[in-house]
Structures are given as C-alpha cells and as structure tokens.
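TICKET #2291
ISSUE: user wants both folds in one file
ATTACHMENT 1:
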Amino acid sequence: MSNDVAIIGTGLHPFGRHGDKLALEMGADAAKDALADAGTEWSAVQTAFVGSYEVSNPDAITGWLGLTGIPVRGVFNGCATGGTSIQMAAAAIRNGEADIAMAIGFDKHPRGAFAADPSVVGLPAWYGQTGLFLTTHFFGTKINRYMGLHGISAETVAKIAAKNLHNGSITPHAWRRKPASVDSILNDLVVNYPLTRSMYCGPCEGAAALVLCRGDLAHKYTKTPVFVRAAELRSRRYGAFELQSPSLPLETAPSPTVDASTAAYETAGIGPDDVDVAQLQDTDAGSELIHMAENGFCADGDQEKWIADGATEIGGRLPVNTDGGLIANGEPIGASGLRQIREIVLQLQGRAGDRQVGGDPRVGYTHLYGAPGASAVTILSR
C-alpha cells in the first residue's frame, strides 16, 4: 500500500460577512463543495478533523452532513488550526486509520481586532478596543523593530499590502476586491506604527474544506491529484521571539516558523528554490515580509529588493498569496489555513483563473503562524 496522501477535492464558502448564517452551515457548504470536487460523498469519508475558534463543538457539523458515526475530532491551534487539521488528516491516512479523510474549518468572528477572554490573559476589553491587543500591538511592534534592524522601508511593507489587495481584486471569492495604491495604504489610518489599517487582515466569516485519500487511490477521483509531501507543526522553543515582550532581544532560538519550515523541507526532500508558488501568513503586511525570510526564501533585509523587483507578484519568481492572502480574504481562524491549501491546489492544477501563475507550477508551499507561537508548514506537489 502506498504511503502517499493526495488531496482530491477542495471546497470553499467565501470569506466575508454573511448575516445570520451559522458557521456550521458555512462549514457544511464548504465540505459539500469539496466532496463534489472530489466526485464522492460524505458517506465515503472515514474520519474528519474539524477546526474552529468560535464553535466549541465543531464536530456538530455531522448534523449538517450526515450522522454516519465516523470519528470526528475538533481541532484548534490558533491561526495554525488549518495546518494542524490537514496534518492530522494526512497522518490518519498514513497510519491506516482511513482511506478517505477530510479537513474542514469554519468560523464566524465579530467585527474588530481579535479579542481574548480576559479571564485567560488578564486584560480588560478596552485593551483591544484601543488598538493595543495582539494582532495590532504585537505585529506593529514586531515589524517596526525588524525594519530598523534590516533596513526595510515602510513603503516596502505598503507594497506587500497593495500586491495582496490587487490579487484579491482578481479573485472572485475574495472579501476585499478593491485594489489600493501604495500611497493610499501609507496614508490610511495608522493603527500601530508603521502598520496602517489597509495593512492588516480583518476577522471575518467563512469556511474551507479538503478531501484527502491514499495516494494509490487518487486517480479514481481526479486526473490531477495534488500530493501532501510534508505537513509539519512546531511550537516555540525557550528564547524565541516572545509574544508578551516583542521589543526585547530574546532571539536566542529561532522562530517556530524556522523550525517548521526546516522540518518540512527535509521531509519533502526539497529546498526553498524548488517552490513555485507560496502562501505565507499575512495577518499584516509586515508578517508576510518577515515570513519570507523565516521560511528560507530570502535573507533578512533582502525583502526590500525582492519587493521592488516584483518577485512575489503573480508574474514574479515566487508568487506569494496569489488569492490576496488574509489581507484580501480576512481570517476566519478555523478556515484560513485550508483556504491557503485550496489556493495552492488550484494553482498546481492550473485552475486559478486570472491569478494563475505561469511556468507550469509543480511545487506549492503554505505557512501559518498562530500566536503566541505555533507554526504550520505544508508542502504540496503534483
């Protein structure tokens, strides 16, 4: 029996705002979309891993899909939830627990910056409401320090946001489909310097799903299977860049992204130069910039030239976030990583429409970073 795992179907419920529609219902729609793409039915699925932040029992999606009695496990790992769920689904197949498995993610977040239960972090609600919590304060401080250390300009950060908003404008399912100029992004409302409002993603609603199967069965379902060559997850080591003290020189250990990417390259038997198209966590434009180096695609500080040369645009040498990433799509946490995977699958299958990269891409890469420090990297190939 083959130890390969293939993705044979992908599904998406568009991200954005969807009124009173339940997150579970969005998840069911994405799952049905993925099953239709694979040419199979829910009754053929033998196990599923379902991720959500807002839904405490995401396994309740079985009520929308069918009560078949299979093991369904709830998954949550911050912004790395999608990468965790595909890793678990692939492992279940490799371990002989299932021939066909699903990874499903969905969420329905309120407007505004991501908040947290004050009883957990000990912070009052006004801390987030005044722009001082997590996705604003932490990431703003982090990129500001990185820019100073490596000679990166605010204009370069704005160019990343402009690139992602442009890509979103040619992506039919994107939430934010209006392009923006670099100047307008720089002149937008400052949230946490140097990051303006246009440089951040926004919490939103939506769902995504994947159908996976044993590699030797894949051609029963599709002529263009995409194989999971690596799916790695790493957490922080002591001394890594710490969430609660981002301005202090604590980097005596690498970011968990460095550890996850190193492990993924080793497992897949490739290096960064072999990657044709990538999706990198862009909670904000500064995060995408930092993650270019942490995932091994360039050295710290080289991003200035990469971005100036258009290297990460759809026609560049390493297209990044071809569907607009989080900046254009927003982030329903449970679904976000699976949206990344879906985009890479479409690119490798030549089904990405106006945003299709050229050069017959064969290897794709996705990366997630979930605060306070879980990173997931998946490498896919034809």
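ATTACHMENT 2:
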Amino acid sequence: MGQMMWRILRIYLPALMIVACLGSGAAADQNDQRLPPLFAELKARISLAQAKLLEAQIWSIWGNHGREDVERLMQRGIQAMGSGQLVNAIDLFQEIIRIDPDYAEAWNKLATVRYMLGEFEQSVEDVDRTLDLEPRHFGALAGLGMNFEALGNAKAAINAYRRALEVNPYLFSVRKRLKVLEDGLPEDAT
C-alpha cells in the first residue's frame, strides 16, 4: 500500500472499527436529533479525551442506520476495507446506497475506498454527496482535503481542512496537514 493509503487507514480505521462494533440500536443517521448537541459540545473547550469520546459517539450515530440488512452490509464493507479487499468494499457500499441513497455514511465510506484506490475525482464526487446529506461530516471534509492534495490542488485542500476544523477543532492530523500546506503557499494564495 502507498504511504497516503496507510495514513488514511491509520486516521480513520479506529473510528470505523468503533462504529462496526457498537451494534444496532434505534434508527440513526445524519438526521439524528442527538447530533446537534454533540457537535456543539465538540466546539467547546474540552479535553482531548472528551473530544475523542464525542467523536466516537458521532461516528456511532452516523454508522447506525437502523435497518439490520444495511448495518450488516456496512460491517462487511468496513471489514473488507480493513483487509484490503477494496473492490469488494466498493460493491458493498454501493449496495447500501442502492437501498438508501440518502445515507451519508455509505457515501463517505465509498469515497474513502475510492481514495484508497487512487480514484480521487470519483472520491471527491462521493464526498460532495456525503456533504450534501451531512455538511458537518468532519471525516468527509478531511477526506476532501486529502483528495485535493492528491490532485495537486493545495488551495482547495486548505479550504477543505479549514472547514473540517471548524466542525471539529480536535483533528490534529488535519491541523498538521493544514499547516504544512499553508506554510508552502505564497501569502496571497491563501
């Protein structure tokens, strides 16, 4: 695997595995009423441990569809991602999207796999769909920045990373990438 692919796995796989292991509850997704207060708290001055707990809660809600068949497909897709079976993961996430085209997390996972395969422009399209459904999706915003970096568009990457940090200021790897990119651009370019 390439260095960027390992980086994305290292950043997102722990959260993906938390979501996969949390089990089903009541139907939830990007429209869940528990999300607004979690996002508000995430913007407050809290400890890193509290921020990580809030992130895990948000990922859990995003990942919990409420339909058992969709959740089984999601778990299988996440497992396929983790084991490098990326084409199989794409098929599984596309099947979820056929079942529920308004499920933001399925679009986000599809975008992640396409990024891992180097299909950056398709990944950007899937991220855009994710953000249409869930504009606060800090994972998708970070992924958008990574896609733009891979496509050589530092200015767009900077904008995406800034948006991610507005939603979740505790994304330290995003903050680090943002600084690297900002330090590399002429002053009038940002």
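RESOLUTION: both attachments delivered.
EXTRA DETAIL ON ATTACHMENT 2: The radius of gyration is 16 Å.
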